Amino acid sequence: MTTTSDAIRAEITALVKEGRAAVGKREIELKKGGAKRTLTVPDVDKYQRWYTKALPVVRQILPDRYEEFRAHYSQEKRKAMDLETYTISDLFSGLAPSSWDEDVPINRAVLRVNSQIRILESALGRLDSKLSDITLTLESELFEHEIDAADVLLKSKYVRAAGALAGVALERHLGTVARSHDLKVAKKDPTIAELNDPLKAADVIDVPTWRFIQRLADLRNLCDHAKQRDPTNDEVQELIAGVRRIVKTVS
C-alpha cells in the first residue's frame, strides 16, 4: 500500500525530473558575428511552470534553504549586477552587463537552475523526518485536547475516567514517538511500560524521564483496573499534569 511518504517522494522525484527537462540544448544565433552555437538554455515557459510548483515544496520541506532557492531566481536587494548576483529572472528579462559575451548570462542562469534542482532533490533526504515532525505536531495537539478533556472529567468528579483518558493520551503519544524513531515494539498494542523501556534503551529518554513515566503508568493502571482501590483526586491531577509534561517534552 502506498504511504503518504511514498506519494510525496514520487511527486518530488517527478518535479526534479521536470526541472531538468526545463533546461535543454538549443541552437542560438549570437548577435556578434551572426554565428550559431548550440548552448544549454532554460526554456522560459517550462521553467516558470516548474518554479511555481517547486517553490512551495522547498518552503515546506526545506525552510532553511527557501531564501537560497528564491535568490537563484531573483535578488531584489543586490548592489550591482555581476557574475555572483546575476539571476535567472535577469536572463528572462534580457538584462546583462554590456561587457559580457552573449553566452555568459545564459551559462550563469543555467548554473542557477541546476542549483535549484539540487536543492529540491535534497528534499528527498529530509522528507521522512519532516513528515515525522508534522505528525508529532498534529498528534501532540490532539493529545492536548484529550488531556484538556481529562481535566474537565476530573472537575466533574469523574476521577477514574479522567485518569483513564489521560493514560490513553500518554500511551498514544509514546507510540507516536517510538514510530518516529523507528523503534521496534513487539506487541501491536503496547502498554506504556512496553513503550517506556525501548525508548530508554534507544536513548530517546533519560533515566529520570523513564522513572517518571513508570510512575505515570502506575497511576494509569490504578485508574484502569476497578479491582484495585479508587484513585484519589490528587493522584489523577498528578497523572494529568505528568502526561501534559511528557507530551510537550518527549519527541
> Distance between the terminal alpha carbons, to the nearest Å?
27 Å
Would you tell me the structural class of the helices and strands?
A: mainly alpha
**Over all CA atoms, what is the radius of gyration?**
28 Å
Tally of helical runs? 9
Provide the residue-averaged pLDDT: 87
Strand order, largest beta sheet: 1-2
Which stretches of 5+ consecutive residues score pLDDT under 50? none
Largest sheet data: 2 strands, antiparallel
Shape: rod-shaped
Total count of strands: 2
The ordered H/E elements are: HEEHHHHHHHH
Strand content: 5-15%
Question: Could you give a quick summary of the protein structure above?
Answer:
The chain is mainly alpha-helical. The protein has nine helices and two strands. It folds into two domains: 4-126; 157-249, no CATH class.
